[in-house]
Amino acid sequence: QVQLMESGGGSVQTGGSLRLSCTVSGLTFSALAMGWFRQAPGKERDGVSCITWNGETTTYADSVKGRFTISRDNAKNTLYLQMNSLEPEDTAMYYCASVRESWCGSLFHAHNYWGQGTQVTVSS
Q1: Residues 19-55: pLDDT tens digits?
Q2: The pLDDT of residue 112 is above 90
Q3: Which of 44, 52, 87, 113 could be 57's S-S partner, Cβ–Cβ 3.0 to 4.6 Å?
Q4: Burial class of residue 6 (count of CB atoms within 10 Å of its CB; 0-12, 13-18, 19+)
């Protein structure tokens, strides 16, 4: 049974930081590209960042480049997203997922396994 459990969300003010974590089970985590996605109310779920299985390649949406950092610990089956300089536009539910494109790339898509997500709210 595939399980993805996101945590670390919260409410912060503009300019604040949060670190999201995602623990994965039921998948061969260390062999998969992984990504973070987010969905704001009334909007589609979009890719935020992707990391290859070995962590050597990372990609970011233009809106978060220079502010967010994705990383992973294959020994712990855990994916991370360090979010700095948060802006109100970053407010969304954040999800992690395995990614179909093993190389990541500028456009990446999730396999259809989702956790419950973790809410990030940034106030001005």
Answers
A1: 999 999 999 999 999 999 999 999 999 999 999 999 9
A2: no
A3: 52
A4: buried
- Cα 4 from chain centroid? 11
Tell me the two tokens of residue 58.
Answer: 């990372």
122: its two tokens: 């940034």
What torsion do the CA atoms of 66, 116, 118, 70 make, to the nearest 10 degrees? Answer: -20
Within 8 A by CB and 6+ apart from 53, the residues are 30, 31, 32, 33, 74, 102
Q: What residues contact 2, with CB distance under 8 A and at least 6 apart?
A: 24, 25, 26, 27, 113
Q: Distance of alpha carbon 81 from its chain centroid, rounded?
A: 6
Q: Regarding beta strands 34-39 and 18-25, do their DSSP bridges make them parallel or antiparallel, or are they unpaired?
A: unpaired
At 100, list the tokens: 């179909």
Element (H, E) at 11: strand 10-13
Rounded to whole angstroms, the Cα distance separating 65 from 93 reads: 19
Token pair listed for 109: 């898509």
